[in-house]
Amino acid sequence: MITLSAEQCRVIGVMLEKETTTPEQYPLSINGITTGCNQKSNREPVMSLAEGDVHNIVDELVKMNQLMIDHKASGRVSKYFHRFCDTEFGNFKFTPQQRAIICVLFLRGPQTPGELRTRTNRLADFADVSEVEAALIQLQDFNDQALVKKLEREPGKRESRYIHLFSDIDESELVQEDNFQNNIIAVENNAQLAERVTELEQQVASLTEQVTCLIELINDR
Fold first, then answer.
1. What CATH number belongs to 1-93?
2. What's this model's pTM, rounded to 2 decimal places?
3. Widest CA span of the chain, in angstroms?
4. Residue 184 pLDDT level (bands cut at 50, 70, 90)
5. Can you point out the beta strands (E) in 34-136?
6. Top CATH class, 97-169
């Protein structure tokens, strides 16, 4: 099985996504791939790749036979299509559901079955979470290869997350990253709480001052 970097996974994920959701714009130019990689929505983490960086990644994937220039495309701008799966030259023949799961894992990192069902809604149809789980089981033993892995359930969470195995992923780093993100959220929440408390204190002080003025006016009468 091929091993991909996080950036290579992002590029292939974009190709898989756009091929399904915007087929009229596929194959993609370097500019189109860059825009897809750097989307603010439906991407985790959000990346900020320069076109030159994306061009280098695309060249790497072409050499790995995962992407190919579309020689039939008209115009001066080169366009690319993937050979990753479900193509004449691809190593993987996925069902639409399997393909959708791999695509979202490439674009958004570890996901629970519930998250996958919600986030694949434009890529494939799942009647319920059990269908997602069934597709994940298939991908855990896909032609004698494990393409995804179930992570240990985190404390306080109802569902376990799944990761794809096309990259060398250190699970301890995932835990550290999650803790870091949780700490950021906690700090932001504390900052918002402190700001709200300050606003309330100012309101109380203002009201206290108004009441004091009213009392003085009444006493003067």
1. 1.10.10.10
2. 0.76
3. 95
4. low
5. 67-69, 79-82
6. mainly alpha
